[in-house]
Amino acid sequence: MRAISTATLLTPCLLMAGLLLSACDYQGRSEYPTTSANLQLSRVVLYRNGVGYFERRGEVDGNILRIKVRKDQINDLLKSMTIVDRKSGQAVSVSMPLDPQTWANVALATLSPGRGSLAAVLDSLRGMVVELGTTIGTLEGRIVMVEHIADEPDPSTVRARGATAPETLGQDHKLTLMQENELQVVRLSKVTSITLQDQDLAMQFHRRLDAAAGEGMFQQVDVAIRLTGDTSHDLVVSYVVEAPMWKPTYRVVLPKDGKGEALLQAWAVVDNTSGEDWRDVKLALTAGAPIAFRYDLHTPREVFREDLSGRIHQRRARVAMGETTYEEDGKDMAPPAELEAEDAERDDDGDYGLMAKSEARPRDAMVGGMRQPRSPAPRAKKKSKRNGGGSYYDARLRTADTTTGLEETREAEPAAVSIDSLRRSTLARAKASKASGLTRFDIAQPVTVPDSTSTMVAIINQAVQGEETFLYRPGGAGVGYEPNPYRVVRFRNTTPFVLESGPISIYSGGSFVGEGISETVGSGTSATVPFAVETGIMVERESKSTPEELKLVKIVRGTIHVERFHQVTTIWKAQAQTMKDGFQVLIRHPKAGPHYKLKVRPEGTEDLPGAYLVPVKVPAGQLKNKIELIEQTPSRTTISIWSRDALKLLERLVIATNLSEADRRKLDPIVTMRRDIGRIDTIVEGIRKQQRELDRRSEHHRRVLRRLKDDKSLEATKLRRESTAALAEFGKEGDTIGREIVKLEGERLRKTLKLEELLQTLTITPSK
Questions:
Q1: What is the pTM for the complete model shown?
Q2: pLDDT confidence bin for 569, thresholds 50/70/90
Q3: Helix/strand/coil for 14
Q4: How many other C-beta atoms can be found within 10 angstroms of the C-beta atom of residue 423?
Q5: How far are the Cα atoms of 121, 295, 506, 734 from residue 53, in angstroms, in the given order?
């Protein structure tokens, strides 16, 4: 076999490059913003789920507004875009170019990494016009097919019959082109270049390669918005597209005495990766967990439909006898109900936004104590009573001043880290509002966030009630600190804002003392944040299970309704080394199970998901104390008074339950009679056991008699005599036992009837 040359092996790769590069003159690439148009970006709302709400406003002359949208954002745009003409109050239509059908062509699918071949690509392009450069000349035509060729003999090396086998041409494909009425066939190994005549197809190849390289999806698509009429339009365009989530960070300054008024401060770190600067925009940050997802609305989808043409032509009607019916005419179908459209509502400013109006007053604050004079934003409609001002500092992580100015500007100098100094250094101006369960931080002053930068915005600067204490979690404070609790800061979020999860720096005594992180803290709820380990306190735990406890619920007509309680007792012990002034440790006690509840709830106990927060207080002058927690799980069940265990249960319930005197007088004869019936049952059971033993021994002697029936020996005769006598004796005993059982059963029946008569009107419900 003739070896395939290196040039032959490289041909498919070279052809692919030639096919793509010679198809069209592809321009260089550059980064594009999410959207770009002659409308000014006026409002940005960032969420914690990876999307952002953007709003643009401006005047447009003519009846078409064109917006360039990044291809990777087009589906989000289609899901959420709203365009309103503020003059007419009417929404307008939106149109945009779709990708040609070749975007979904199999040929493009073969370009996925690790898949396809040149032969597969060309075979998928059947019907397309190409120009081939080959070793024998240039060919042009429409692709008809591409066929695989097995090893074939090389005609130039065919030898006489019987000689050595001729060399072969190796694996290959043959490509068939059609030009007018002529079919031309060429081996693919002879093709050196391929030029696509369809420019749209060539462009789609480039797009597919761009997407594979991670670049093409960032190109832009033209979106044409067709407006009503040809005069000028005052438009509001809003949409939701992908955006980085905003990130919160907090500071808590503890009071001097460890309990009382603390300072809560919060900032939001905002990232702008949209490809354009946000200049003087209204910024809002939304806390919560709205659902967002990707969905392809841009790519056309075809639905398979069955072809029924053949069935129509193949139908044959057969002759059938006509029939006459005597049924009444059917009623006319009711006309379909019409749907009513709802008019869109605008807010007080004429905005067509998606958020609810503010529900709380703005709070004053500032970022970081540094500021520069700045004029108010030109688009602001309302002015604050205070002087507007703000400053922005160029850096990769920048700080946006969304605050009011002070009457005098002071040089930044080191100051004592105290509640008052930190409160004065940060004046945040944000207001809270609610929308479908979400909390939104609306920044009062316009914000500027340059592209590819992060900005830190102050949102909270408020006094809250807080304290420093200790918290013990099962397992302790970490490896090596198993018996030790955490030092924690506890505060109540009295702000109207929801505090999203984020890092919290703790300050006390004029300096940093630790940091922690908390779950989401709703408005009006409390948070407990560990920030250090307390090695001077040790916590121990003891657990035990107690016997089951029964409680009578009621007795109705012989049916006993009871509650069974299974109890788990836990003892928590807290001990300190030197804290003689007294202290308190909060124990995070896991619940024993989903149906367990505390029998006695200690004062100050709080509920957590799957646990309790129980305080263990050590008074002044002592170094240790303990608390006992009893958890029990009640389960209701019914027991018939005729059950084997009913008597024992009744006796226990009568003793353990606080019955009234009237109920006790009703229950006492029933318990006595049930006890007598139980005694009779016990006697009868013993007698029946004797009866079964007599039957067993009698059967033994009967088998002996059957075996010795034909034996005439003296020994056999003696054994027959003994067995006969034994059977007679057993018969007498059996008769006595039988009479005794009949007597007892008669007595039991009389007592049972009397007891059932008493039970017919018996209803006992003990007082709680």
A1: 0.53
A2: very high
A3: helix
A4: 16
A5: 42, 17, 33, 96
